[in-house]
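Q: What does the predicted 3D structure of Nicotinamide-nucleotide adenylyltransferase look like?
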Amino acid sequence: LILLACGSFNPITNMHMRLFELARDHLHQTGRYRVIEGIMSPVNDDYGKKGLVSARHRIAMAKLALETSDWIRVDPWESEQETWTATVKVLSLSFPIKILSLEFISHHHRIPLHSKAKGIAKTRKPSKYRNLSFPFVFPVLPELKLLCGADFLQTFKTPNLWKEEHIKEIVEKFGLVCISRAGSDPAHYVNESDLLTKFQHNIFLVKEWIQNEISATQIRYALCRGLSVKYLIPDSVISYIAHHNIYTEESERKNEGDLLQPLKLH
């Protein structure tokens, strides 16, 4: 499996990174999967969320935070598009789900995947999928799943935030790995949705036994007030924020009163 997390990461916190570790442990314990890579995909600036600072800074902070990880990386593709990209499209363009070719493009060269499948020809044609670098040559095609927190499931109920066909494609074709959070009941969110219940076999609910309620929003508020956020986010990120003076009362007013881009479109 490859785990992909989409979000603001504004700023990246220790809890964002914990999501990946918790998900990997859970999936390994099932005995059915091996997680080979984790990818963070910060949202495009055009998303319009209140207080959302430039993707340039959010990408830089994520890269600093993930320097200590040997399997999670940040991917700037989504943030570099001309406008906001729907999550289902980010998933679809992250990985060739339809097996037309077993060649993947790394950042520097092609890495062919060994396969016993018949009739799959290697091609030199450019791929429409974004560049992905893998540390291994795989005997099987890895699956991609969307990693999220429990509150993510609740957003499916927000009118006009999601298209139903997008939700269906995410849970049917890819699947969700959802980490619990205090005050959220992901099993309840699944049970009260006919669509999620239908594909609950492809939704993995992971219990976080060590409650950690670090919130990027609360961290921004603390930074605006000059309060310490040490041990909540990596020291390298704290230094970057201080050097660039990113989170201020002015930055927190950015996009204030605006609708999120998907609400405008839908």
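A (community wiki): The structure tokens above were generated from the sequence. The beta strands are 2-7, 37-42, 72-74, 103-105, 110-112, 144-149, 176-179, 203-206. Confidence is low (pLDDT under 50) at residues 96-129.
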